[in-house]
Amino acid sequence: MSSSRPSMSTFQRRLYRMIVCLHPATFRNKFGREMSLDFEDALAGTGFVSLLLDASLCLGRQWAGHLVSGGADRGTGTRPSLLAGQYVMVREEALSPLELTRGLIVSVTLLGLCAFGLRLGPGTARAGLGHVRHGSGGGPSLAVGNGGSVPKTATQPETQCYVLMRSRDGLRNMKAVPANAKPEANWRDLNHVQYKAMPISVLVPFLSSMMHCPVADETGLTGKYDFSLAFSRNTSPAQIFDGTFASSAHDSLPSISTALETQLGLKLQPN
Amino acid sequence: MQQDYTEFLPLSPATLHVLLALTSGDLHGYGIMLEVARQSNSQYKIGPGTLYDNLKKLLKVGLVDEAAVDTAESEPRRKYRLTQLGGSVLAAETDRLTSVLRQARRGLRLHEERYP
Q1: pLDDT for residue A2
Q2: Residue of B nearest to A58 (CA)
């Protein structure tokens, strides 16, 4: 039973991200990343099936609102939008019958998967309409204060998809600092970060979060370093599904894996 | 001239709890989820889907605003704050609920007197 947990956990994450990807583009672009992060945090305390049902209901509400409003919040011009697991060019006027049929097929498939999840996780489905009811094991850890700084859930043991290692050309722009220096992370915005006196071990959970998959540290770097990273957070559906990242055509910043290689001399290798 | 907030009322339970959670300060999504559970003694919990569905509506009507990203965190997240309008609507909803509560207590007292 315990050996099936890692693959189940990865399956749960992928399924949740798939549902997030099926939301209308405007909603997904604004809240998709936050939803995935919150899912990771809430998974242990709330239960997978409850969160899945919650996301599925949200998916239905968003598409219903989107279609009823005629896509008023869609913005101007055409844009690529994920529908039925593919990117299509959504026009201003409306979705075509073919696109709606594709969406229907995916929705039915998802419902089937939800039913499959219910069979796998008996006793965890306690979601009511529009909100998640009690978990079976008492309340969640309530570590939030006025600042709202919440510690992340402890990482579950699971299969590691990527390995962080040194590239052949050696380290770049990484300045070693004394071990007693105080670690500090300064985010200029969501795409630029400057680390001071940071051990590589701290970077690994962040990379796992970016790659949506655990990353193993095989750099052998045990000291503390000053370094900066500039990277794009944009992902395409294919990249989300297979767990790889690359920059979009509209973004001048490199993907996280490219940024690691070109800016730091570190390499993110699929395991 | 006092503004009329009745167009926003009554608030749905999820919306009420989200606004209530934000009275404790700027919070990111998971912070709101935890605060909702804390304020309701874990009797009411919302998932990310319900949360962002509500936040989208609240941002649109201006009851909630985005706060500055806390760049000191290792994984920066968007934070949300209650606007002045949001606070006023929450106060109006609290008044409405207080009135409902008063009526409910009075009705129950009369009911007990009639059917002791």
Answers
A1: 45
A2: B49
DSSP per residue, A155-174: PPP----EEEEE-TT---S-
How many degrees, rounded to 5, is the angle at CA A195 between CA A193 and CA A200?
A: 115
Q: What is the pLDDT of residues A172-189, one digit of tens each?
A: 888 888 888 888 888 877
| B23 in Cβ contact with B59 (< 8 Å) | no
* pLDDT for B22: 95
Q: Which stretches in chain A have pLDDT values below 50?
A: 1-3, 75-80, 92, 123-158, 236-238, 240-250
Instruction: Give per-residue burial for B68-99: e unless 16+ CB within 10 Å, then b.
Output: eebeeebebbbbbebbebbebbbebbeeeeee
Among residues B64, B106, B103, B76, the alpha carbon closest in space to that of A148 is found at B76
Whole-number Å distance between alpha carbons of A44 and A12: 12
Smallest CA-to-CA distance from A29 within A233, A230, A191 is with A233
Q: Please give the pLDDT value at position A176.
A: 86
Using a CB-CB cut-off of 8 Å, the residues of chain B touching A141 are: 34
Q: Of the candidates B32, B42, B50, which has its C-beta nearest A58's C-beta?
A: B50
Residues of B in contact with A31 (CB under 8 A): 52, 55-56
Give the C-alpha separation, A172 to A191, whole Å.
19
Q: Count CB-CB contacts under 10 A for residue A8.
A: 15
Query: Residue B71: closest CA among chain A residues belongs to which residue?
Result: A187
Contact A46 B43 (CB under 8 A): no
CA distance B66 to chain A (A): 12
Q: Could you give the ipTM of this predicted complex? A: 0.84
Q: Tally Cβ neighbours within 10 Å of residue B7.
A: 8
Question: What pLDDT is attached to residue B103?
Answer: 95
Both tokens of residue B91?
Answer: 């106060």
- Cα–Cα distances (Å) from B91 to A7, A237, B11, B62, in that order, read 48, 43, 11, 15
What tens digit of pLDDT does each residue of A36-84 get? 889 988 888 888 888 989 999 999 989 888 887 765 555 444 444 555 5
